[in-house]
Design goal:
Rossmann fold; AB_hydrolase_fold; nine-stranded mixed beta sheet; Alpha/beta hydrolase fold protein; 15% strand; 42% helix; hydrolase; alpha/beta
Length: 327
């Protein structure tokens, strides 16, 4: 029997009531999570500073003797990224270098306005940061930020580049505007992002791609990543990341060809998203040194910090208990 207008009207009212109720629940949960996260503490032990860049307040931590060679540490891009990524090596590196570690715009303790973030924004930021925050530094950069650093180093003077599993491709070969719009949506986007950056969600990503040994993921690091991902505005930069808008326009090997400085590529032998075969191919094409860590995926500097410090200092025998090979 066909539904009468009265029945249809009642069904529509019920549907709207359910939708409003669900939206109310999502909004309530989002508020609770943000409140529970609280303010984000400093990611590293050192002197805190602010770099004013194109309307952003960019937070950074520095340590070491300013008269020592400058070393710029650039964290990778993910839903919960910050300069906390370098916590395991920051202090040791500061014994030989004047170390500067910024939180990229849209991440960590830096400003997170609701912009449409792009790869070109981060390329420009790295070029300017290399010039403004340091004096011909060695630049250590992780994952997608390795491409941004290579681009920046093609225009700004650097001593050398140390790139950790660098890539110029993320989630999609073609940017997906609909996905970015979903994550940027006030209620649904916040709800989906909170699911992605729940502690089980963060651990799932690290288990699949980040760590070869999950015992190396400390409770403190997990807690910090969770808190960082629940700061106001936290989803806007990752929304562009997961939808493919943060990929650089120029291929990584072409950017490295324009860098007038030694380049070291660091890879975890067990990496899957960017396998070590990609590292070998990139090293061959760009005449770069390749250093491969056993028992590591995307975070060899986190899982084998002493040996990584040795690589940066050009002494890979620093920690002989770690299996490290050059190619």
């Amino acid at each position: 029997m066909p539904a009468t207008p009265l029945v249809l009207d009642m069904k529509l009212r019920n549907l709207l009531t359910t939708a409003v109720g669900t939206a109310g629940v999502i909004a309530g949960v989002n508020r609770i999570l943000t409140t529970r996260a609280g303010d984000l503490e400093a990611p590293l032990v050192g002197s805190e500073g602010t770099y004013r860049w194109r309307g952003f307040d960019v937070a950074y931590t520095e340590a070491g003797d300013p008269s020592d060679p400058d070393l710029l540490l650039v964290h990778g891009i993910s839903a919960a990224s910050s300069s906390r990524e370098f916590a395991e090596v920051f202090e040791d590196l500061s014994r030989e270098y004047h170390v500067i570690a910024p939180d990229l715009p849209g991440f960590g303790r830096s400003d997170r306005p609701p912009l449409l973030y792009s790869g070109s924004l981060y390329e420009t930021f790295l070029r300017d940061a290399i010039r403004d925050l340091a004096d011909e530094p060695t630049v250590v950069a992780s994952s997608l930020s390795g491409a941004y650093a290579a681009c920046g180093a093609s225009d700004a003077a650097v001593e050398s580049l140390v790139l950790i599993a660098p890539t110029d491709t993320t989630m999609s070969e073609t940017p997906r505007s609909w996905l970015r719009s979903v994550f940027r949506a006030p209620l649904v986007g916040s709800g989906l992002f909170n699911l992605l950056v729940s502690k089980p969600g963060i651990k799932h990503f690290h288990r699949d791609h980040g760590y070869a040994d999950m015992d190396n993921l400390t409770d403190e690091t997990l807690e910090y990543q969770w808190k960082s991902a629940h700061q106001p505005g936290a989803r806007y930069a990752p929304a562009s990341f997961v939808s493919g808008y943060l990929d650089p326009e120029t291929e990584l090997e072409d950017m490295l060809a324009d860098v007038d400085a030694p380049v070291t590529l660091v890879w975890g032998r067990d990496a899957e998203i960017t396998p070590v075969s990609a590292g070998r191919a990139l090293a061959k094409k760009t005449d770069s040194r390749l250093v491969v860590f056993d028992d590591a995926k995307l975070l060899p500097h986190v899982e084998h910090p002493a040996a990584f410090v040795g690589v940066v200092a050009d002494d890979i025998d620093e920690a002989p208990s770690t299996a490290v090979s050059t190619a």
